[in-house]
Amino acid sequence: MGPYCNNYLEGFHIPFVHDDLDAVLDYGKNVAAYYYWVFPNMMFNFYPWGLSVNIVQPLNIERTKVSFVSYVWDRSKLDEGAGSVLDKVEMEDEAVVEGVQKGVRSRFYKAGRFSPTHEKGVHHFHRLLAAFLNRE
Ligand SMILES: [Fe+2]
Fold this sequence. Notes:
alpha+beta; Naphthalene 1,2-dioxygenase Alpha Subunit, Chain A, domain 1; 5 helices; 4 strands; binds fe (ii) ion
């Protein structure tokens, strides 16, 4: 579950992993989509066409199930902006998250420090996790 949430909570990977999303993001506009994350495992993504909900369910320590539920309220905008390449973006995230999951199991992997500029959301997620796991 961790790698999927980590991926969601930082946008630094977008230019490297999501070429189409990067291309459709209109940097002249202030808002392309609204992304809300509800701790610990729900994401609400508002696009011009409607809402995509992601529900992240840990199945065991190594397996996670992610459910994608879409609510379309304007079909005419399905091909517009950040929401138009959603399926491809989700597949790209799945591939990198699975790669990260393999990588962290490697004996060559060592946890490093969070980037103060690019990983604020990930850091917040891990602080919340630590706080809830340490509660009695
Ligand atoms: Fe992504």
